Structure formats: structure tokens, C-alpha cells
């Protein structure tokens, strides 16, 4: 009788995906202003289908916004491509942090996981995994919440963004939301120390290198020192 009442595997999978989606919906709303801003800028430099296709395939808000802005200034394609790769290089660090949680996930899910990786889905999922363990389907649900919201907001920006006053400052919505995400990740003194160190290193490098490289270098330095400190404490 207990076996008959047990939910089917497909139902359990759908529940786990839906759980990730529900957990991320409040966060997904924060990308709406930035998606509208991207769509409005992209509509000035490319046909509608190209702007929408970029959101479907690239799916990287900051890189898309910078690319659209550079194209609006008649930048060559190669610098746009290189800039986008540099901006998205931080995803290498995010994926490395997630991989230990996905060791048991089927390999056929890895391309989908990679496509759905964003700062928002990472922040929500890593907080969940720290409390309840890794779950690739939860992450997929989280990523789908961001993906669907980003596509819808892109359409709104392409169709109606020209009527939005620049004084609204929509381009600041995403950086503001990313600052809020830090509160999901910084939960102990070690995390606070690593975050502060990364900020200080990033500020120190600003006069020397570009913003993208300074952020990446600061993250690598702070993360490396944080791991080293943890291992040293575990041995002592």
C-alpha cells in the first residue's frame, strides 16, 4: 500500500524543478528592469529578431547590454565579442563552485545547466544547496525562472522601451540586485572576510586594469586566500 502511494519518479522530478522555480521567482523580478533596458538599447542597433535571438542564445544580461551599447556606438564585431567573453569569464568561477553539487547529475543535463547559469540562479541555488544538498533539477527550475523572465522583459524593452524616460535609470537595476544577492551567500565570518577582501583588491586594481579584469582578479585572489585559510585552519 505504501508503494502504491509513493509519487512517480516523473512527479518527483517536476516537483524539484517547480521548487527551484518558486524559490527564484521573487529574485527573477529584479531582472525585469534590466531586461527592458537591454531591449530598448538593442532595438536601436539591431532588428527585433536579432535582439530576441541574442537573449535566447547568449542569455547573459550584462554582456548583452554592453554588446548592444558598443554596437550602438558602431564598435567592430571582434571587440564586442572579446568584451562579452571577458565579462562572462566570471561564470567559470560560478560553474566551478557548483560542480561539486552536480557530480551525480546525468551528463545529458550538463549543457542545459551551463546555459541556465546566471548570477541569480547561482545565488539562489548555492544557498539552497548549503542547507539541503545539491540538486540539479532545483537549479534547472531556478534557471528557467530567470530565463523566462529575461525573455519576456527583452520583448517588452524591444517593443516599448523607446517610450521609457532615461531618467528612470533602469541600467542600475541589475547591479543593485546583485548586491542584494550577497546577503544570500555571506553567512559566516569567513565569507564576510573574503567578500571584503575581494572588494578591497578590486578597488586597488581599478587604477591599474580595466573593470572586468580587476573584478576577476579580485575574485581569484580572495577566493584562493579563503580556501587556503580554510585548509590551514582544518590542519591546525
Mean pLDDT, rounded to whole units? 80
The N- to C-terminal Cα distance equals 53 Å
| Poorly predicted segments | 1-7
Radius of gyration: 20 Å
Give the overall silhouette: globular
Number of individual domains:
2
Structural class label: mainly alpha
Tell me the β content: under 5%
Number of distinct beta strands: 0
Q: Would you list the SSEs in sequence order as H and E? A: HHHHHHHHHHHHH
Q: Main sheet?
A: none
The DSSP helix count reads 13
Helix content: over 70%
Layout: helices, strands, pairs:
Layout: H1 2-5, H2 9-28, H3 32-43, H4 48-57, H5 61-72, H6 77-88, H7 90-98, H8 110-115, H9 119-132, H10 136-160, H11 173-185, H12 189-205, H13 211-235
Explain how this protein is built.
- 76% of the residues lie in helices and 0% in strands.
- Helix 2 (9-28) packs across helix 10 and helix 3 (32-43) packs across helix 10.
- The radius of gyration is 20 Å and the shape is globular.
- The chain has 13 helices and no strands.
- The termini are far apart.
- The longest helix has 25 residues, at 136-160.
